[in-house]
Amino acid sequence: MLAKRVAELPEGDDWLFEPKWDGFRALVFRDGADIFIQSRDEKPLNRYFPELVPALQSALPPKCVLDGEIVIVKDDELDFDLLQLRLHPAASRVKLLSQQTPASFVFFDLLCVGDRDLCGEPFEKRRRELEKLISSASPPIHITPATRDRKVAADWFSRFEGAGLDGVIAKPTAGTYEPNKRVMFKVKHERECDCVVAGFRWHKKGDRTLVGSLLLGLFDDAGALQHVGVCASFSNAKRLELAEFLKPYRKDALANHPWKGWADEQSASGRMPGGQSRWSQGKDLSWEPLRPELVVEVAYDHMQGDRFRHTAQFRRWRSDKKPTECTYEQLEVVPPQEIAAIFPAGR
User: Residue 343: which of 139, 96, 196, 200 has the closest Cα?
Assistant: First the structure.
């Protein structure tokens, strides 16, 4: 079940609010001794998080299906980078990381217990049964906090962003579990930032006539232009318009380009434009350099290290701003809050 993004928390008494976790969404199926952890795109995750299997066997009843999020906490903050490192092909590497940076499972829904299918039951009832089921479970198994109080949810939204939480989820108390439907609401943080447009990627359709995404950069303290993410989600008409608009900036773009060394696919890494990684699954990540003269204002939710955690959204061109003004200094830094503060009694 998915969530639709809204601008603010809904009013009324018919909602249950939860923190929005930034991890790997997953279902857990248990049947006797068998545990199966399934990703959102229906792939098995057991081999990547072996430390969770015995914990789930200990905490869950013999037959059940639960919905939740796999997270890794480091220094009292969620760390998505560490979570991604767990998707490694080498079992020895996975085993080592499972010991060095163990994962946790935060559950927020119960879909089945025993022979009872609970998907048609109101969420309020599913939540009560989930609490009975795992409220006494030990870490790394957790149940997400929930509240009916909109003020408490608003406090979570503002206070725990520094701990890496994405925002707040609002679930209708009478709602049933509807797979692939956006019947929940999510309120996420959104900020604006001016970035240098230093390149772009062609859209997978259009035979190199449609722009797929813009490659964004910010200058660091040393004056180097760092790749911070992409801006995408354009209409086809906008993609065609961008291809024409960017054409003059492609001329001699690579001659003095700050990312010139990354143009060689052989030398690129996963954190540079055009670099393949084990998560790109063979996608064409080649890019077209642009003279770094354009500035764009984008909306983003939060940073993951020195990059945007998610795809940024186009707002407008900033012809009134110099590229050299696009620095990390404009970003808002949110003080970290302890993850433990979200859970009562250190949970």
Answer: 139
The pTM assigned to this predicted structure is: 0.72
The pair of structure tokens assigned to 170 is 């609002």
Q: Is the separation of the CB atoms in 70 and 45 below 8 Å? A: yes
The sign of the dihedral angle between the CA atoms of 104, 110, 116, 119 is negative
Torsion of CA 92, 95, 97, 101, to 10 degrees: 180
How far apart are the C-alpha atoms of 298 and 231, rounded to whole Å?
7
Q: Which residues are catalytic?
A: 20
Q: Which fold has domain 191-330?
A: OB fold (Dihydrolipoamide Acetyltransferase, E2P) (2.40.50)
Alpha helix stretches (DSSP H) within 79-122 = 80-85, 91-100
Q: List the one residue out of 145, 161, 164, 140 whose CA is nearest residue 22.
A: 164
Which of the listed CATH numbers 3.55.10.10, 2.30.110.10, 3.30.470.30, 3.40.50.150 matches domain 2-189?
A: 3.30.470.30
Q: What is the full per-residue pLDDT of the chain (347 aa) written as tens digits? A: 989 988 899 999 999 999 999 899 999 999 999 999 999 889 999 999 999 999 999 999 999 999 999 999 988 888 888 998 999 989 999 999 999 999 999 999 999 999 999 999 999 999 999 999 998 889 999 999 999 999 999 999 888 877 778 889 999 999 999 998 999 999 987 788 899 999 999 998 878 889 999 999 999 999 999 999 999 989 999 999 999 999 999 999 988 899 987 755 434 444 455 454 444 455 556 889 999 999 999 988 877 778 888 889 998 899 888 999 999 988 876 666 667 776 655 44
Determine contact, residues 168/19, Cβ cutoff 8 Å: yes
CA distances from 323 to 294, 305, 328 (A): 7, 22, 12
CA-to-CA dists, residue 254 to 156, 265, 285, 319, 341, angstroms: 46, 14, 17, 22, 49
Spatial CB neighbours of 174, under 8 Å, sequence gap ≥ 6: 14, 122, 123, 124
Domain positions in the chain are 2-189, 191-330
For residue 153, give the nearest of 346, 340, 300, 20 by alpha carbon. 20
